[in-house]
Amino acid sequence: MELKLYDTLTREKRVFAPIDPQRVRMYVCGPTVYDFAHIGNARPAIVFDVLFRLLRHLAKQGVWDGGKGETAVTYVRNITDVDDKINARAAEEYPDLPLNEAIRKVTEKTDRQFHEDVAALGCLPPTVEPRATEHIAEMRMLIERLVEESHAYVAEDNVLFSVSSMPDYSKLSKRPLDEMIAGARVDVAPYKRDPMDFVLWKPSKPGEPAWPSPCGIAAPGRPGWHIECSAMSWKHLGEIFDIHGGGIDLVFPHHENEIAQSRCAFHTPVMANYWMHNGFLQVEGEKMSKSLGNFVTIHELLADWPGEVIRFNMLRTHYRQPIDWTTRGLEESEKTIDHWYEIVGDMALHADAHPDPVVLQTLCDDLNTPGTLTRLHAIAGEIRGPASGLRQIELKRRFKASAEFLGLLEATRGAYLEGHPRRKRIDRTIDHTRINALVEARTIARAAKNFAESDRIRNELAAMGVVLKDTKDGTTWEIAR
RNA sequence: GGCGACGUGCCAGAGUGGUUAUGGAGCGGUCUGCAAAACCGUUUACCCCGGUUCAAUUCCGGGCGUCGCCUCCA
User: Fold this and answer.
1) From CA A24, how far away is CA A243, in angstroms rounded?
2) A133 contacts: CB under 8 Å, gap ≥ 6
3) For the segment A292-339, what is each residue's pLDDT rounded down to a tens digit?
4) Run of H or E residues at A375
5) Whether the predicted pLDDT of A255 surpasses 90
6) What's the pLDDT tens digit per position in A33-48?
7) Residues A84, A91: contact at Cβ < 8 Å?
8) Which nucleotide's C1' is closest to A319 (Cα)?
9) CA separation for the pair A13, A279 (Å, rounded)
10) Which of A13, A90, A129, A198 could form a disulfide with A102, with the two C-beta atoms 3.0–4.6 Å apart?
């Protein structure tokens, strides 16, 4: 099986092959931990989680090491824990604490929340989750090297990367430099040699996080935003690696600058062989922003929707397409997940079950997740329709294995319904003893063919959010969908 | 202003140089005392204008429109 991935740098879909057949290396830009992660943050987390799962599967199949199946997959997703926004948030939330202590509180809390959120969305933990503040030494080494080789310079206690020192700067975003400057809305710091030069290191203000500066700068300072990813990917993946991912908004300037730093420091032709970018997300047709009041956090969504409904909703759209995130979409996704749980019920994943080959093949075409869901619908249809006997059992196992491969349907139906946040809320308002009594009364009424009474009870229960199902084995009830 | 992405049926959303995408909704039916769930059937497409081609929704050019980036951003 051949994996094809779209590469932003070359603007084409190419067959993926790792540099080292023994080890696939992927780096994805993670969150800056200053606030609840929003639904836009969830997209790369989910998209690259699917890719991680697929890479591990193909590695186990021996796709890259001649069938041995010993290829390791290293997935690095960083945590940015040094940033102006963090400092601002810390000062705002804990005005009475020393800034550094306040910052630690903010980053620890946000970090924990982020991990809870993405776990609820069915994302596996990455292999390594490096923190920027734990890689200051590597950043300083990179900066020293860049200055030594005249790719960077010191100016007023800042260290700046000299864009003109790199002939093919802006190759990733394909932006003509002169025109960018003309349209730029930034005030250019007077000490910059070129308006496009960007900060590698800057002096810290009193009270701010500070580390000894590189390049003989006496004043303590802190890193610029881009250098951390160059440092962390270098430390954990090496000078060149296979896949670098993130949101499409990071193409410029963040990834462009990472490339400049890493390539100039290591004298390499590329930083990563495949640059993958997920599309942006709108909320109910509008740009998500705090001022519009439509800022949707993962945490809030999880109060109403099961994590896998959110995940499914994300996977319905190809990762490079824009998504309009809507309640209607979530409702549709929930219907499908409900339906699919009806099919798998409480079955556990069978030891011999494998994901459907078509699902895998579709996924191998640049992560065509909507295509895989279509395939799952087709299998579901066969299970509910024509299939029977052994064929049906086989299909169900394959269905379950395929869904789990995508991080869906990992629970039992019972656990899913029980854990459903909205149903759980309704459940707390109802009296089970009373419902069972009403169901019993209705059964008696039905036996006596007193259908007026029977329907009255059904309506009474419906008003409470309880729906009845009459089967040949008796009447069961559950909380309405 | 520059760069980029995208425009598919009521909605969501794949894909393809010629053959039903799929899901949701709607409508009709099966089942049911009535329902629910499920199943079966069914309606509605490829922004506009040129070009290439035997054939274009699919390729090329132009136009229009939407969105994003160029400032922190997934």
Assistant:
1) 8
2) A81, A82, A209
3) 777 899 999 999 999 999 999 999 999 999 899 999 999 999 999 999
4) helix A369-384
5) yes
6) 999 999 999 999 999 9
7) no
8) B74
9) 16
10) A90
- Residue A141 neighbours by CB under 8 Å, 6+ apart: A231
Starting at the edge strand found earlier in the chain, the sheet holding A198-203 runs: A152-155, A158-161, A198-203, A221-223
Q: Which nucleotides of B are covered by protein (CB under 7 A)?
A: 1-6, 11-15, 21-25, 32-40, 67-74
> Residues A165-176: pLDDT tens digits?
998 888 888 877
Write out the residue limits of the CATH 1.20.120.640 domain(s) in chain A.
327-419
- Where along chain A do the CATH 3.40.50.620 domains lie? 4-282
Q: For A398-418, what is each residue's pLDDT tens digit?
A: 999 999 999 999 999 999 999
**Residue–nucleotide distance: A184 CA to B7 C1' (Å):** 29
What does pTM read for this prediction?
Answer: 0.95
Q: What are the phi and psi torsion angles at A437 (to 5°)?
A: -65, -40
What is the total residue count of chain A?
A: 481
CA dist A4 and A101 (Å) reads 46
C-alpha gyration radius of chain A: 27
Of chain A residues 264-293, which have a beta carbon within 7 Å of strand B?
278-282, 287-288
Model-level ipTM above the cut of 0.90: yes
Comparison of pLDDT for A42 and A388, the residue scoring more: A42
Which CATH superfamily, name and number, covers A4-282? Answer: HUPs (3.40.50.620)
Among all chains, which residue has been given the structure tokens 């590597």? A138
What is d(CA A101, CA A118) in angstroms, rounded to the nearest whole number? 26
Phi, psi (rounded to 5 degrees) for A426: -65, -40
